[in-house]
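User: What would this chain look like folded?
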Amino acid sequence: MHKSGFVNIIGNPNVGKSTLMNVLVGEKLSIITSKAQTTRHRIIGIVNDEEHQIIFSDTPGFVKPIYKMHEGMMTFVRSAISDADVILFMVEAKENELKHIEILEKLKKTSIPVLLLINKIDEIDQAFLEEKVAFWKNELPKAKIFPLSALHNFNVDQILLEIKNLLPEAPPFYDKDQLTDKPEKFFVAEIIREKILIHYKKEVPYSCEVVIEEFKEEPSIIRIRAVIMVIRESQKGIIIGHQGKDLKIIGTLARKEMEQFFEKKVFLEMYVKVNKDWRNNEKQLKNFGYLN
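Assistant: Here's the prediction, encoded as structure tokens.
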């Protein structure tokens, strides 16, 4: 008997979805920073053993749309609820409410099994945790609740066992040696975007999109040309920095991580361009994968 299914991770920004995704898959597929909107796309990671194929899906955190880009991000979240075999609904131990009541209502009505994961329990005491469990039991009585510390790998094995129990009988959807559905260029762009999120402050990282114009793999090296798009000329200057210093730092950090990821030498060229309205331009958002 073989079991396969889609296990979709949803929750507010900064709740630790990407950390959990990477722990479950055993590879760094989702970028991780302390900033909201780090995850913008729906990222799939595939885990196999002899009897199971689990297709994990990390989704963007819940946001109130300001730009068409945000609308696309929330479409990923809604589809993650409707097409899941199991939903991992992550909440932070200290949070009391969802940013999207609509999502909570969908979870209350769904017949799909929901595992409610209370993450970051290492930051609270037992009495506070018991209050949180009682609160969420009242909100989602059908959900099975698991205290969790994704960062410290606490209770992850128990959650994995529960997921395997809930998976439907089915043949594998993907080849057994496949790790994700995303192309290599996607992860190159995400690595660069992660370094931008970490290195720069305020609104600059949220205005950026990374486009890979060239990805050329040779026997001993991968040659990559990337464009960082910003919405204002002043942001271009900030990204580049004095005499190109900041862009060089980003490039060095990104290249080193790419070389680890691909296990091959990487030559990385990066440019910065102003693209004022990319977050609201439907044609561009389709090209960038935010809209169908």
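The chain has two domains: 3-166, 184-287. If you want, I can go into more detail on any region.
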